Amino acid sequence: MRNELLLVVELIVVYGGVLLWYVLFGVKGMQCFTVLATIAANIEVLILVHAFGMEQTLGNILFASTFLVTDILSELAGKKEADKAVNIGILTSVSFMILAQLWLLYQPSENDIVFGGIKLVFSNTPRLMLVSLIVYVIVQKFDVWMYHTWWKFTTQKYGDSKRFLWLRNNVSTLLSQLLNTVLFTFGAFTGIYDMPTMLDIMLVSYLIFIVTSLADTPVVYLARYIKERREKKSMLSVISDS
Q1: Which region, left, alpha or beta, applies to residue 74 given φ > 0 means left and ψ of -120 to 50 means alpha?
Q2: For residue range 143-152, what is the model confidence (pLDDT) as tens digits?
Q3: What is the pTM of this model?
């Protein structure tokens, strides 16, 4: 149960971290967290563990947190800021991949004791790196678009922009994660694994993403509550001062 417990703890720490960074730094905090999550996920995804009866790679929670960030930004700061966070994540991924490959070109000293480990960690195949980047761009852009599409639809139908946060949050994230699972699995593993194996990989991956996607909804509600409370206090302060 050690791995299972650690995954639950990581989910709480990462999602709690997103909320904390928003509380402390607002929109800029969300953008900075995107950089942190993108870099850390690219490293953590290389670790393979067995948990909840399934063999799985890590990095899913950190990757899912980038969708939480864009949903918070979409809800509280608008589509422009959400798109900006996605672009920051894209540039972070490209920069990190280039730097990681440059590190491997150095000739280590005879006294070096870590280059072998660095080489083992960052010697990703060009195919996996390229697929990962392309899928990231497609899925993140799709998530922001889908979030605002559903928001516009429910607002026009019911005349209330605040209602159905849970719907736009979950529909956009669950569909984006499904798209991510299918595109990455086929792009990375076609010709390497047979179809039954790839279907198993997709099933396990998406089950994990369903849990992480549903778990982020309370965090978005909390972020909106915090913003509204701050705005109310600010308004009362202005009224009392006048």
Answers
A1: alpha
A2: 999 999 999 9
A3: 0.91
Question: Counting Cβ atoms within 10 Å, is residue 30 exposed (0-12), middle (13-18) or buried (19+)?
Answer: buried
Full domain range(s) for residue 225: 2-241
The pairs formed by 19-25 with CB atoms below 8 angstroms and a separation of 24 or more are 19/219, 19/222, 19/223, 19/226, 22/72, 22/223, 22/226, 23/226
Lookup: tokens for 110: 């005879």
Establish how many alpha carbons lie within 13 A of residue 117's alpha carbon, considering only the half-sphere containing its beta carbon.
4
CA distance 189 to 162: 41
Shortest CA distance to 101 belongs to which of 117, 118, 78?
Answer: 118
pLDDT in tens, 218-227: 999 999 999 9
CA nearest neighbour of 42 among 119, 103, 122: 122
Q: CA 14 to CA 62: how far, in whole Å?
A: 7
Cα–chain center distance at 84? 14
Cβ neighbours, 10 Å, residue 28: 12
The structure tokens listed for 171 are 């529909």
Q: How many domains does the chain contain in total?
A: 1
